[in-house]
UniProtKB/TrEMBL annotation:
Xref: InterPro entries: VanZ-like
Name of the protein: VanZ-like domain-containing protein
Domain of life: Bacteria
Chain ranges passing through the membrane: 20-37, 49-67, 87-106, 113-134, 140-159
This protein's UniProt keywords: Membrane, Transmembrane, Transmembrane helix
Species of the source: Enterococcus innesii
VanZ-like domain boundaries: 56-153
């Protein structure tokens, strides 16, 4: 709780006496997926519905973090290499990690990469136009790195073995 609570409150600020709900939901989801992970080793398969639930929760969280976390903030960061100063910060790592699951869904090729960059560029533009955050070229780069890492992981034999166990 010492790590999870302050970290989650930085992304999901609440007021009042219900600020334990978000960490509680996070703990329950982590526990549920750890249970499924252990059960998949015992039974030899992973339920397909759990993957669907994961991606529904993932995309809802992604929409929140991209469009609703910084309402009222507007700005532009023109320097695409500014993230290098903050390379070891949680924000840069989160920008990479939160787009890895998209790489699992889409194979790495020129068309998918260009489409992904276009979508991220449109997200960044909409953040600026509608005052939902800061347009940052570094975010485009780090999000694309997350997509590429996810695509690379999905091509490994270990991931192929995992895909065979999904039923």
């Amino acid at each position: 709780m010492e790590f999870l609570y302050p970290f989650s409150m930085s992304f999901f600020p609440t007021s009042g006496s219900v600020d334990f709900v978000i960490p509680l939901i996070q703990i329950l989801l982590i526990t549920f997926y750890l249970y499924l992970f252990v059960q998949s080793f015992i039974s030899g398969f992973f339920p397909k519905w759990a993957i669907y639930i994961f991606y529904i929760i993932y995309y809802l969280l992604l929409i929140y973090l991209l469009f609703f976390k910084n309402i009222g903030i507007q700005g532009i960061e023109w320097n695409p290499l500014m993230f290098i100063q903050d390379l070891l910060s949680a924000v840069v790592l989160l920008n990479i990690v939160m787009f890895i699951p998209n790489g699992f869904l889409f194979k790495f090729n020129k068309k998918n990469l260009l489409l992904f960059i276009l979508v991220i560029f449109l997200v960044e533009i909409s953040q600026y136009v509608f005052a939902l955050g800061i347009f940052d070229f570094g975010d485009i780069f780090t999000n694309t790195c997350g997509f590429i890492i996810g695509s690379a992981i999905s091509e490994t034999p270990l991931f192929s073995n995992f895909k065979e166990k999904i039923r």
